Amino acid sequence: MGLPVSGGLVDFALGAALIILPQYKIPLAAGAATIALGKRLKERKSVEAKQKGSSSTSETEKIELQWTELTCTITDKKGRSKTLLDGLQGQALPGRLLSIMGPSGSGKTTLLNALAGQVPQTKRMALKGNISINGEPQQSAARRQGYVQQDDIFFSQMTVRETLSMAAALRMPRTSTPEDRSAAVDSLMAKLGLTQSADTIIGNAKTRGLSGGEKKRLSIACELISSPRLLFLDEPTSGLDSFQAEKVMQTLKQLAEEGHTVVCSIHQPRSSIYAMFDDLLLLSEGRLVYAGAADQALKHFEQEGHACPQHYNPADFLADLVSVDHSSSDQERLSRERVGKLQAAPRASVTLHQGSQHNTASQNSAAPEPGRGASLGLQSRLLLRRSWRQIVRDKATNVSRAMSNVSSALIFGSIYWRLGRSQISIQDRMGLLQVAAVNAAMSSLTKTLNVFSVERSIVARERSKGSYGVTPYFLAKLAAESPIGALFPLLFGSIVYPAAGLNQKLSRFATFLGILTLESFTSSSLGLAVGAVAPSPDAAMAIGPGVMVLFIVFGGFYVNSATVPRVLRWVPRASLIQHAFRGLCVNEFQGLEFEQSKAGAKGEAGTGEEALQRLTFQDLTVRSTLAAQARVLAFNYWFTYCVLKARRPRFQQLESPGHA
Ligand SMILES: Nc1ncnc2c1ncn2[C@@H]1O[C@H](COP(=O)(O)OP(=O)(O)OP(=O)(O)O)[C@@H](O)[C@H]1O
Questions:
Q1: What's the topology of domain 65-356?
Q2: Which of 135, 190, 208, 236 is found 20 to 30 A from 107 (Cα to Cα)?
Q3: Region entry Disordered: which residue ranges (predicted)?
């Protein structure tokens, strides 16, 4: 693909570009020259660096990003193909803020993801083109990029300083000292205006914390901690009020002025934000409409016959100009004609010198370089501390869990108050034990589903940056959550057991609490398994309780497992409710004696053993039910671990434009 360009011709182009054109002033003509110039400068710098025997550090390095023939298509199940990006070319330069604008659905996020090497892998998608950084394939430069995604997701109970310190420990070079990391955190907080909120927790819907703008700036700081010189941001102002949006954009402008290459997508900024852009890339339906200096865009469109009215926000004008109006077929035809003409106009393309383009074979990005990031031991300690803080500090969740367990225990305690030893108390006992098993399971499942589905997204993002692996994360999580997880069934059991006057022996009371606690862990492990496998938090919230209802039905009280149809035999075996209920019944009934009714009706149970026989539990022991429960727990943990391992974030490979 590369055009053979002689040294003389390139030098002439460089000279002309230097004399006539400030950077990006006339994109079409300047495109080849600027890129060739960039390459020459880079070559010169590289020679100088070699001569001095030094390699450039990420702090001083300038990143020049170029792309050509970038096309992304997706084919649906019926074989219909949709073009998300159509042969795009462009460049992002150091020291400049490039904004990607366009109507909703024009391909801004797709382009940003493609440039960052983070287009989520989809079966029927094809991503083709050339991307290079300083004339090299992107794979080699990917570690130097930061990507701030649209949604700011964090562990809600961590403070700004703790979040940044953790990012520093995980992503700064292993050789950095704690003092280096602390200095980097302080300096980033100062730079991004976060010093005042250093010790504020991030917060969530339940607990007040950082403002939207502060969260966005924290996201930027977390990316900057690894000193990337190329920063991508997807809609950094979305969801922010105009004041916060302006502050975030000022931060980006400042980063660009310091020499970073900053690329952001933005929907419809206010005019003061538009004025901050150095370069603009305008898209419509995946095609380029304008690429060049932001302050030249209005002039260009005026020359094309579309003048922006006075005192009109240029961003609004441009959005209207390149939008296709679907309100009627006539409007659609007219607007398509207008946009089509603009796409064909000269400023719609940037001609790049392709001799320096390399195709990227693979661009799974942002994994730390060898020698970067924390050791396994440090990762485990950091993750354990974060999980512990997240659980212990989440007072809203802990208080509501405690209140729900206490109130359930009080309600059931009063319903089953002092059961006694009558014949009726046998059925009541069974009812109470079933209710206790269901309560412990539901409470723990709901909490895990709520928390884990959100946490999974954060962890996936951190793993895609190579911050840590599944093993230290999973072990740390289990270790941190166990003590708190055990508190709630203990609380419930300690109230309900004496209130109902269950078996008086202390050892039976301890076993009762042990069974409920193990069941609660198993239910939580089911929540993890469902949360890991479900495609979204909403899906997890739908699947989890559905599975639990099935386990309740086969919980040993409503259906006798001996009569279960063969195809459903696995359900009682997997039913954590059944194992808990069986264990609780054996623990309660063995050795108890019941009063016979005066009439001495047939079928009455005089002993606990006879009551167990009615449920066909006569051959069970507490130990066997605990072992069965432990097997379900181990399976759920193993399953979750495997799914998390297998569900590593995967990104679309960039293929060569010529690739069939
Ligand atoms: N995985 C996918 N499968 C099918 N269509 C997709 C996929 N990803 C993106 N698209 C489609 O590609 C088009 C561009 O999407 P993209 O998210 O890049 O647009 P955008 O300009 O960022 O939009 P917005 O401003 O609304 O976020 C949209 O029509 C979208 O529906």
A1: Rossmann fold (3.40.50)
A2: 135
A3: 345-372
